[in-house]
Specification:
By secondary structure, the chain is of the alpha/beta class. Helices cover 34% and strands 21% of the residues. The strands form two sheets. A nine-stranded mixed β-sheet has the order 1-2-3-5-4-8-9-10-11, sandwiched between helices. α7 runs parallel beside α8 (234-247). The protein is globular and about 55 Å long.
């Protein structure tokens, strides 16, 4: 018999009281230990139906599950915790995909407020904000090291996860999309599934594009998207990511999924609309035989 919930985890309603928009089973680790420069924060884990049922009953399924690590985790499952009151609906999307034989654990790693722009940017930059240049960035490597060495071991010891990189993903939007692309290089032994939604690729003079063009590029399944109603030049910037990946040998609809949404803006609602197809592509090779 196994404990339910697993040690260190709490049920969602134990931590977040009152009405919520959660679907399926979501557990909460209230405070993941931080490291120097990377503060502690909450994370949540969505468990697919077969895993949630077996763990609650104390009976192992005999299966292991892919794991997807999401940036800006407070926006993922619950409109109540989202900073604008709109969620990605990742729990609803994964509940539907489970009916198609694609089950995965989704780990929502919360951002740390004002530290977000530093943690999701690997390179030190200057942000012009109200005519006041502000230094930012430079903590991307430390953040990914923390994700891999602190967050991932908690998940791996708590749930029956698949360890191979082809079953381990990282997904984010905007700056979270940038750090997700960067993880393909900085943590190449860990992440083989990359979801980069509306990525902010201009930082440090498009350095992520240069990295894609010149650095050793491991095999992966990559989803990249953008909306036509985001800021000026955003579609052009994102096409540079697509074109750089194609030039390195990625093939559309085989190992690269690229989407432009005609009416998409730079917000949670747009990413929620595009998420189901992104997940369907990333998990396509991991479908459980039916």
């Amino acid at each position: 018999m196994t404990a339910w919930p697993p040690p260190g985890w709490k049920t969602y309603t134990e931590v977040h009281h009152g009405p919520n928009t959660i679907s399926g089973t979501v557990l909460v680790w209230p405070k993941v230990e931080g490291v120097p420069g990377i503060p502690a924060r909450e994370m949540q884990a969505y468990l697919p139906p077969s895993l949630a049922a077996s763990m609650a009953a104390g009976e192992p399924t005999g299966r292991r599950y892919p794991v997807l690590y999401f940036m800006d985790g407070q926006n993922l499952f619950d409109a109540k915790t989202s900073y604008i009151g709109v969620e990605w609906g990742a729990d609803e999307a994964l509940e539907e995909l489970a009916k198609e034989g694609m089950e995965a654990i989704a780990v929502a790693v919360w951002n740390h407020g004002d530290d977000r722009m530093d943690e999701y940017n690997p390179w030190k930059s200057t942000l012009d904000w109200r005519d006041r240049p502000q230094p930012m960035g430079g903590k991307g490597d430390a953040y990914l090291d923390w994700l891999v060495s602190t967050v991932k071991p908690i998940v791996d010891r708590s749930f029956p996860t698949r360890a191979e990189r082809a079953a381990t993903g990282i997904i984010g939007s905007s700056m979270g999309g940038l750090i997700s692309l960067y993880a393909l290089f900085a943590q190449r032994a860990v992440f083989g599934l990359i979801g980069s939604m509306s990525p902010s690729v201009r930082w440090s003079d498009f350095r992520i594009i240069t990295l894609i063009e010149d650095a050793p590029l491991p095999p992966a399944r990559i989803h990249v998207d953008v909306g036509w109603r985001e800021w000026k030049g955003m579609t052009r910037d994102t096409r540079k990511v697509r074109d750089a990946l194609l030039a390195r040998g990625f093939v559309l609809d085989e190992d690269l999924h690229y989407v432009e949404e005609r009416h998409g803006r730079h917000n949670e609602g747009a990413w929620a609309r595009r998420l189901p197809d992104a997940l369907r592509f990333l998990l396509a090779d991991l479908r459980e035989p039916r």
